[in-house]
Design brief:
- By secondary structure, this protein is mainly α.
- It has one domain.
- It is elongated and about 55 Å long.
- The chain contains three helices and no strands.
- The protein starts with a helix and ends with a helix.
- 82% of the residues lie in helices and 0% in strands.
Length: 98
């Protein structure tokens, strides 16, 4: 069973890393939005394409609060929750199977 435990541990590690990197993409996107970025810049286009699907869903459900877009903050909180709840659960399952 240790092989299955190692697979769970590996999945947890990869998922944690992906969520961590996506959180940083959202943070960078939010910081860049403060300075009126060039929309034709390839980095800005990548950040928009990578983060818009998640942020759009949150914006559609929550909207603007007092004229402020809180979707990046809510997305980061959601990622932190997933890291704590889902990743740690998978990691614990992997530990128990070893």
């Amino acid at each position: 069973m240790f092989v299955v435990g190692n697979i769970f541990q590996g999945v947890a590690y990869v998922l944690d890393t992906v969520l961590f990197l996506y959180m940083w993409l959202i943070i960078i996107r939010a910081l860049i939005s403060w300075v009126n970025p060039d929309p034709w810049n390839p980095i800005v286009q990548f950040l928009s394409k990578a983060t818009d699907p998640v942020l759009f869903i949150i914006r559609r459900r929550v909207g603007l609060l007092g004229g402020i877009d809180v979707s990046p903050i809510l997305a980061i909180l959601l990622i932190m929750f997933l890291q704590y709840a889902v990743v740690e659960t998978i990691r614990d399952i992997g530990t128990q199977l070893q």
